[in-house]
Amino acid sequence: MSYMDNTTKKRVLREGVIKSIWLATALISAVAVAFILGHVICTALSGFLFNTNWNPTGTPPSYGIAALIIDTLLVTLGALIFSVPLGLATAVYISYVAPPRMRDVVKPVIELLAGIPSVVYGFFGMIVLGSFLQKALNIPSGACWLAASIILGIMALPTIISVSEDALFAIPKDYKEASLSLGVTYWHTISHVLLPAAASGVSAAVILGMGRAIGETMAVMMIAGNAAIIPNPIWNVLSPVRTLTATLGIEMTEVATNSMHYYALFGVATILLLITLLINLTSYWLIKRMQTGSCLPDRMRNWTHSEGMRVAVAAVAGIIVVWFLSAVLGILSAVVITAAIGAWYFGREKISPKFAEKSSFGIIYACTAAVILILAIILWDIFANGLPAISWEFLTGRPKQCGLAGGIFTAIVGTLQLVAGAILITLPIGIGAAIYFTEYSHENLLTRALRIGNDLLNGTPSIVFGLFGFAFFVIYLNWGTCMLAGQICLAFMILPTIIRTTEEALKSVPNSLREASLGLGATQWQTIRKVVLPSAAPGILTGAILSVGRAAGETAPIMFTAVVFSKRFITRDVFDPVMALPYHLFALSTTVPDVTTQHYGTAVVLIALVIAIYLAAIFSRRHFQKKLFR
């Protein structure tokens, strides 16, 4: 019996080995195809993705974007180091510390930061921040990685603060009350209960801030130095850098159509779009997890909350802080500051709870004050230097000497024409899509896909809209640089905002109004048209006006498609180019550095226009609300 069992085992083993041999021979062809395809793809991409030399005009030309990708990530990392602590502390202040009246003051200030056009940030970075860094650090030029990270960090602050505040506000009040009832301090409740509970929303805020920094074009073009090199050494924050977006903005207008350089730039745009899509999908997943109340599986959550994980995170954060501060302040200062922070972190358990609470709230107050101070400095510099340039002749006059003198009337009118055309195109589409999402669709795969597509469109970098408009409208349809191309690109850019704000306005209408209308025999469309839309009008109008404000301050979508530097007469044909305030300020700042009066005057008018649009949104909403609830 034992002999038969051994024989059977040997036979089965032999058959298994033979089967495996024949399976291996069958797999050789498939493996060979995969290996050949992978090798070909890697070889084709290695010169593009992994080559650090970007020199399209060289002999021979080189199209390696590795340095551009690394520079983009480095600038974004610096922006997050600057903005995340300030943004999170300000969000905590608004959510849990500020009195109601102070909260009503601080929130509009943060929203005002979001409303300042990116070209104004770039202009401030060139004139003020760059000059300050050049003098303070005794460097040849203030246009560097550090300056770009600070400006992008300021621009990312409103996103990080707003999303973090929403996440903190969504935490049930029972969490806070239960923690306080145990006798712990208010700061202990915030740091150990409320912030961990909002971890997914805060993570989404950081990721969205990262996406804002990666997708920015105009400001980084004006302040980063635009050298396609990797800093040497890698932690040299005073080195000039060039990002993916800046490369597109600088070179697309000068490249020959259908050349290798032309297609390489579209390859750069593809990589940029893939990066932002990945960031937006990650933030979308985190926000959905926050809404469902579970961000991570239990095993991973326990791991992230372990003491070992906290020590590892603290060590990595310490290394980053030492690196960043040493490049700016010197190694000794960086070590002292980091040692002080580390001593506080690891010795915080030995500090009395009351002292820890007071010191932590002091840091929160200081961070919030710093955010407000940043806005005050920017606005003070712009208005203090720009208001003397404002006159009736400046506002109503036409450009002279190719825009170097005279007024900016045609630029103001051109900006309004671009914005008006964009709203006329996108408003019916956006409202229609929101009506479908809210009133007709049910939660299914198609609806989720459409929502994700809308969110991804909202996160697409503005330079990509301009690149699309240049390739399709200007080149493929042979429209040339014209107002209509710019209007369509702006319409695509603000479409997600229109859809989202209109959808939220429609959701705010009570279902009882719909049921009452349907109960009286009205059709669904009659109910929507005569009951739902009038009730949602304040929210819809607010979304439209906010979209106008965003479109009025954008430069990248129109710089390839619609605008020229100087134009004496108002454009009356949609197939002619126009002037626009954002591009006019960009062109003056980067090509004519000595016309300071024109610079600041144009910046004041642009900011005033955007602020007026945002104020119009606020007052219009209040007017409609009072009219509806009389």
Summarize the structure.
Helices cover 77% and strands 1% of the residues.
Q: Can you offer a commentary on this structure?
A:
The protein has helices at residues 2-49, 66-97, 100-115, 118-137, 145-169, 173-181, 186-197, 199-215, 218-223, 244-251, 260-292, 298-304, 307-329, 331-346, 353-386, 392-396, 409-440, 445-458, 462-476, 483-507, 511-519, 524-535, 537-553, 556-559, 581-591, 596-628; strands at 54-55, 62-63, 399-400, 405-406. A hairpin with a 6-residue loop joins strand 1 and strand 2. The model is unreliable at 294-305 (pLDDT under 50). It folds into three domains: 1-50; 65-295 and 351-388, MetI-like fold (Orthogonal Bundle); 395-628, MetI-like (MetI-like fold, Orthogonal Bundle), CATH 1.10.3720.10. The protein is 77% helix and 1% strand. By secondary structure, the protein is mostly helical. Helix 10 runs antiparallel to helix 11 (260-292). The radius of gyration is 28 Å and the shape is globular. The chain has a two-stranded antiparallel sheet with strand order 1-2. Strands 3-4 form a two-stranded antiparallel sheet.
